[in-house]
Amino acid sequence: MFMGSRRTILKDIFENKTRPFYKSTLKFDLPAMQRDVFADFIAGRFAIGGYPVRRALADEIISFTDGNPYYTQ
Predict the structure, then answer these.
(1) Nearest alpha carbon to residue 62 among 31, 32, 38, 30
(2) C-alpha separations of 43 from 1, 23, 31 in Å
(3) How far apart are CA 44 and CA 29, in angstroms?
(4) Taking a C-beta distance cutoff of 8 angstroms, is the pair 47, 39 a contact?
(5) pLDDT at residue 5 tops 70
(6) CA dist list (Å): 47 to 7, 19, 44, 68
């Protein structure tokens, strides 16, 4: 399984005839993660790490990164 938010890079790896992984996979686009689910996940991960945060801060993080998983990380 290959995942990523940089679609152009992934597309090039699997759809460019000159690349070794050309047509070696099935493409399956996932919908964007729901923001409330993402905020709960972020708050939970902070709590597990010993740094509990308010849900409002998790919402702010998602707003700042526009919900992009790569930037949120």
Answers:
(1) 38
(2) 27, 38, 21
(3) 26
(4) no
(5) no
(6) 31, 42, 5, 21
Indicate the DSSP class of residue 63.
H
Q: pTM for the complete prediction?
A: 0.64
Q: What is the pLDDT of residues 32-58, one digit of tens each?
A: 889 999 999 999 999 999 999 999 999
DSSP string, 22-37: TT-S---PPPPPPHHH
14 shares its domain with 43: no
Question: And the tokens for 50?
Answer: 């010993």
Question: Rounded distance, CA 13 to CA 2, Å?
Answer: 10
Length of the chain: 73
Question: Do both 16 and 45 map to the same domain?
Answer: no
My answer on whether 10 and 37 are in the same domain is no
